[in-house]
Amino acid sequence: MNRTIFYFFLFLLLATTVLQARQPMDFSLYRLGNPNTYPASGTAGWSEADDPTINFKKMSTQLAATIAPIFFGEADSGGMEKFQLSLGYSMSKLAINENYWQHSLNDEPNDTGISSAYHSVDLMIRKGFPFGLTLHGNVRYYILTEFFSGGVGVEYTINEGLRVAPDVSLGMNYTGLFNGGDMNMHQLALRLKISKSFVVANELLLTPYIAYSHLFSWAYSNRIGGYYDYSQQAGQGAVYAPKGDPFYFDQILINVDRLALGFRWSRGVFGMQFEAIIPFNAYKNFSLNGGIFFNL
Fold it and tell me: For residues 157, 174, 274 and 271, what is the CA-based torsion angle, rounded to 10 degrees?
């Protein structure tokens, strides 16, 4: 039974994954411009709204908040008996009308009418262990892209199961962006989670929770530009000129703080959960998450 449920969730994740080249919301950072040739700050021709380095940092800040994992869960570990499988959906709002998104995506948002948010499907597992430890991992696919994110993490429950006090846990996790084309990102998150469970009518388990996390994210690009243009075929042995000068966006460190409010209910092995995540310093980015889970 447990194996059947696992394969069912895996099938749903793969069924919603469309891996085609250059989807509308994939990255095309060449359109941000070359930071090596753009005028220096304060000089003639410089504009903050068009500065490639500034726009890369702003876009990466919202992306860091977007790929950060769903909190998904109460603070208690559940001990060795706990194994939880979750399928979630996430909507992360973007400042799609700003230059840093207009010039970062494969398609021009205003021209194609693409979404103003990243929509994603998330598969997550959580396993409890003795002494208040919990290990978890997730894989997330982003609709209208060919990239995905995923990672692993650990939580330690300081106290759990006390009638007069909430459950409290501390945790950390690693998340990476994969198959991102021009874009690379690695992330380390520290988190604090507080929850309290209540039994209703001897059947339903209701658990509201609040959580805080700090994200350390490292963003950088692959080589951009400087490729040979073969669109005009001139015969064998022809010499082609490179298209544009090659450049990179250097690695930057981004710090983002997030606050999450969530609620879950369960009955037996099945449950549902909803949460809202508000970053404090990610240019008005926010996320709404929901999903179902099985306690196996």
Answer: -60
In the chain, what are the domains?
Answer: 2-35+49-225+240-295 (2.40.160.20)
Helix (H) or strand (E) holding 82: none
- pTM across the whole model: 0.85
As a whole number of angstroms, the distance between CA 293 and CA 291 comes to 7
Q: Higher pLDDT residue, 244 or 285?
A: 285
Please provide the average confidence, as pLDDT, over all residues in the chain.
85
Higher-scoring residue by pLDDT: 137, 235: 137
What single DSSP character describes residue 46? Answer: -
Q: How far is CA 101 from CA 52, 132, 143, 292, in A?
A: 11, 42, 17, 31
pLDDT band at 241 (very low <50, low <70, confident <90, very high): low
* 186's tokens: 């690695």
